[in-house]
Design goal:
By secondary structure, the chain is of the alpha/beta class. It has helices spanning 53-72, 94-106, 121-128, 149-168, 185-196, 208-218, 247-252, 269-277, 285-288, 291-305, 311-318, 320-335, 339-350; strands at residues 15-21, 26-34, 40-41, 44-47, 78-85, 111-112, 177-181, 200-204, 221-222, 235-238, 257-258, 281-282. Helix 2 (94-106) packs across helix 3 (121-128). The relative contact order is 0.13. The structure holds nicotinamide-adenine-dinucleotide.
Length: 354
Amino acid sequence: MSTLWTEADWDAHEQVQVVHDHAASLTAIIALHSTHLGPGAGGTRFWHYSDPSGAMRDALRLSRGMSYKNAMAGLPMGGGKAVILLDKNRRRTPEMLAAFGDAVEALNGRYVTAADVGASEADMVAIRQRTAHVCGLPVDAGTVGGDPGPFTAMGIYHGIKAAVAHKLGKDHLKGVRVAVQGCGSVGGGVARLLAKDGARLIVADINEARAKALASEIDGKAVAADRIMGTPCDVFSPNALGAVLDDAGIAQLDCAIVAGGANNQLARPEHGDQLSGRGILYAPDYVINAGGIINVSLEYLARERAEPSDINGLRERIAQIPVRLTQIWSQSDASGKGAHTIADAMARKLIGRS
Ligand code: NAD
């Protein structure tokens, strides 16, 4: 018999709540993987699942991922994630958002939500009318919080510089070839920061016009989306979809480093071993892409716990991302274990699960 705890992604989650509100047509799952370090923080995914068991898999897997990400970012936050199961038309109503806000509020601060795939800032503002336990709300320019994308990009930029130093022995990016997959909020931000330092950018997006516009802005080159993974380069930076590092994807790679912001880049853990077997340095995704969650968590902590936070403190925390990555790579070099294995072990120790 299949039960929650025989699911492949079950990891002794502290709490998994299924929320049904018939009047509001809301079906949602809120998964709290660990509150060892603080309230479980992680976004709410708004998605249509043709098979609802996919929603449970996402909630279990993504909430564990948030425990690892928040721990490795040094945040006083645990890991949680919610999914709202939408109909085929992905319709949401004010009643649905209000009912979801009530469900978050009922957890009394054990779960702090934010936007994830399919959610907008406006959804978060609506949820906020029912609960204080929301972050990623609109803020004034120049202050902590709001859109996580630019801060995710900033962390990845620092992480790529550290990877280039570690693997290629270079203390600069001049002439370093970086292939960027995905030219959206994160990929576009990463490409612009790298270009300022003299890196040579090759960019791709399924939205070709977006890739071409970015290439001309940063004096880079745009290639077709299906060619980016096989493009000869120093760094391949995945900033679009998850699971691009599978058998076929890794076979195409012609790079020394993989470092980008997409979540869940490894199709399976053994693909991390394949990368290290090929001598490719891998920046574990949940370590390098934590800039955005650091930004919105500091917003939450400032508002709800009156903790001091300013943009310089945020930058200092983001600057710790390359420090953590370098620790991982050094341990990986010394032990012969892949960076993904080292990172998972470090994260589990931090959340008291070693
Ligand atoms: P986005 O929607 O702004 O941009 C994604 C871009 O990828 C789009 O331009 C899209 O057209 C393109 N794309 C989709 N499929 C592609 C493919 N097969 N090949 C090339 N391009 C493709 O999203 P984003 O906020 O930039 O997020 C990008 C990735 O980073 C996602 O995996 C997301 O989960 C992850 N991430 C984002 C943040 C954040 O702060 N926004 C934080 C952590 C992780």
